[in-house]
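Tutorial handout. Part one gives the primary structure; part two gives the three-dimensional structure as tokens.
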Amino acid sequence: MAWGQRRQIEHHDWYWTASEDDRREYDAFGPWIYDIKSERDVPRRFRANYAEHRDARFLLKVPRDIERREAHPGMDFYSTVLAVGDAGVSLMRAEPDAVTTQTLSWDQIAAVKSYTNLLISRWTLFLHDGTSFTLDYNTVSSDLMDKVTLFVRSRWQRPSDAQSGTGPDVVTVNDHFFRYELADNRRNGPRPVVPIHFEPRDRWCRDERNRRRLTTGVMMLDAPDELIIVNRDKPTRRFWETRYAASVLFVPYAGLTSFALSPPPTDQPGHFHDLVLRLDKQVIRQSCLVAPDMVLRQLVAHGVPEDTGQAEGPAIGADPMPGA
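Part two.
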């Protein structure tokens, strides 16, 4: 090679040397969850599972966290396939050596929760045995996952003799975020949806270490078959802190085995009540600055017994996600 000349580097054209199916999958790849319509859409590692789930109501492939500039045809773009059908839910994950499958029947599911924090989202099924079943995804796919959530909720709908607790004018929701969530829940899902407890954000309060903080707010809604809890993930924030995280938890009344309300640990103002909802071994805790009396009355109306002892076991609390 003559002095001053650069060595020629072979350029590998990943695109045109790939198969047609690999190019097609690469062209469709992005941060969104992809709805599988045919066997051709199934990622290569999951094709052996397709026949079992081809008739599912939802068959979705969830992308890996890969920068588009680092992607090329032939890569494993998808880490997870979710199947939701009439019999239950199956989550298939691609591990280094195999594809593992976790399958749930509807009677194992205690509650469902949607969590968002800017572009980070998590969908969680809480189980009666105290464990949970989670799926992380990009928030751009929230509309699709909302449809999955609505289908899951439809599986526990059943007739109830309890009346909706109050009229919509009894509890006034005057915060923009919570008003949006109220309107969204009234547009989607079983009706009527009635607010039975609301606490606005930015009230002075004390956290568990007695430090002065601001509340983030909470709203509880009564639907025909479920209690809906909307909050900003954690009950308190620092004065200068901006909080974008939010969660919506759907709890079927029929699955509740008991409830309890623990008073604040001190008589000093600004401390929280602890609402405890038990679904067998699963325990949900919600902090309330004001005692949620209407919620307690509605739980009694649905035949949920009050637990006079101390609730124990794992609790559904703030979502441990980055940036929360």
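Part three, for discussion. The chain has five helices and 19 strands. The mean pLDDT is 86.
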